[in-house]
Amino acid sequence: MSAAAAACWLAAVLWGGAALPPARGYVVLSSVSWPLPEGDGPAGDELHSASTEEALPALLEEAGSLWKQSYPASAYREHAELGAGPAARRAARAASPSRMFSYRRESAAPPPPPGPERAAAARARRLARHSTWGFVATQAAQGKVQGMPYGNCLLVSDGPIHNSTGIPFFYVTPKDKTVADLLKNPVASLTLPEVDGNFCRKNVVDPEDPRCTRLTLTGQMVTVAPEEVEFAKQAMFSRHPVIRKWPRNYEWFFLKMNIEHIWLQNWYGEVSTITVEEYLKAIPSKA
Predict the structure, then answer these.
(1) What is the pTM of this model?
(2) Using H for helix, E for strand and C for coil, what is the string for the chain?
(3) Cα angle at 123 between 117 and 126, to 5 degrees?
(4) Predicted confidence (pLDDT) per residue in 193-232, tens digit
(5) Residue-wise over 82-108: b if at least 16 C-beta within 10 A, else e?
(6) Predicted local confidence at residue 243, as pLDDT
């Protein structure tokens, strides 16, 4: 190559290098790149010394992985000398890679199945939630049967369908024999059979069959306090709209049971005893 040609080639190289913007270094791994700061600052030393596949953290393996480890924030400081406008800087920030690395998410272990006590409480709450009537037993307070057990079927609700409380509410009249008994002795028991339960229906089992679950609550029947009357009204009227049309001259009022003892029977002769605390905090089961 002649001296003149060599001089022209060198001039072209120098001119092209001056016209191009300063180059920025990149570490490329699995088609994802991180800009490395120029110069010999601490951030550049840190990243250049760790620019091997073995030293870098594992890349994102799953879209749903948890972010666990940050790369040095100093590697992402903006360079004022770029001179880009606000819109370009926003686009660059949106397109820049995240500062976070991730590792494969450990699959969460399924929650342990509930123990027999919790399962029984959840089943009891399901019966209380879906039962629309129940069998109330009292001690007869008058007549030839005074002092003897007396039973009656009453409409019941433990709250609006989306606000089950487990506490049974009743809409009664003082002219009812059961209410007359309760005025003398408020202790009563309420039995809720699984008449409409899936097990009984699918297996064509009579509601009286021992395999068809029944819940028995025992406690004190009390008049609903004035501050609870509105809730009791919603509980009863939402489940039993027909009672709005009952004759008003029967002096209807609301009762509820303060539960003291709970039994659940769902097999031949086997009865589960449930504490009131476990019953009230349980979530009604779905089946």
Answers:
(1) 0.59
(2) CCHHHHHHHHHHHHHHHHHCCCCCEEEEECCEEEEECCCCCHHHHHHHHCCCCCCCCCCCCCCCCCEEEECCHHHHCCCHHHCCCHHHHHHHHHHCCCCEEECCCCCCCCCCCCCHHHHHHHHHHHHHHHCCEEEEEEECCCHHHCCCEEEEEEECECCCCCCCCCCCEEEECCCCHHHHHHHHCCEEEEEEECCCCHHHHHCCCCCCCCCCCEEEEEEEEEECCHHHHHHHHHHHHHHCHHHHHCCHHHCCEEEEEEEEEEEEECCCCCEEEECHHHHHHCCCCCC
(3) 145
(4) 887 656 666 766 676 777 788 999 999 999 999 999 999 9
(5) eeeeeeeeeeeeeeeeeeebbbeeeee
(6) 95
Question: Among 148-157, 170-179, 269-278, where is mean pLDDT lowest?
Answer: 269-278
What are residue 29's DSSP bridge partners?
32
In one letter, which amino acid is 179? V
Q: Are 178 and 166 in contact (CB under 8 A)?
A: no
